[in-house]
Amino acid sequence: MASAPLDIRNRRLGLIGLAAAVAMLGLGYAAVPLYRMFCQATGLGGTTQRATASEAVVAERQATGAKMSIRCSGRWLTSWPRTTPRCR
Question: In this structure, are residues 70 and 87 in contact, taking their beta carbons and an 8 Å threshold?
Fold first, then answer.
């Protein structure tokens, strides 16, 4: 009767696999509501922030008036031809 412990182990492994599959399915359905709750609680990710009209004017003024300068440095591994700086 050596097959009895093997049957028990096979059944246990099957149940563990089934439980894992059901858990993944459940987490798949719960992902969207959990993500929404996380975004609403932290303000990160897919939800927008609410601003007053005065904050929106200040943010727009700062965004349009800012200038950006980009400087490239090709001092890292200059022996490779593909690492030469291309921006000026």
Answer: yes
Please name which of 45, 16, 18 lies closest in space to residue 32, comparing C-alpha atoms.
45
The alpha carbon torsion through 47, 49, 53, 55 (nearest 10 deg) reads -150
Pair of tokens at residue 44: 């990160």
Prediction pTM value:
0.42
Are residues 4 and 15 in contact, defined by beta-carbon separation less than 8 angstroms?
A: no
What pLDDT does residue 53 have? Answer: 81
Alpha-carbon distance of 55 to 57, in angstroms, equals 5
The better pLDDT of the pair 50, 80 is held by 50
Q: How many residues does the chain have?
A: 88
Summarised one tens digit per residue, pLDDT across range 25-45 is 999 999 989 888 888 787 776
Task: Reduce the DSSP state of residue 52 to 3 states and report it.
Answer: coil
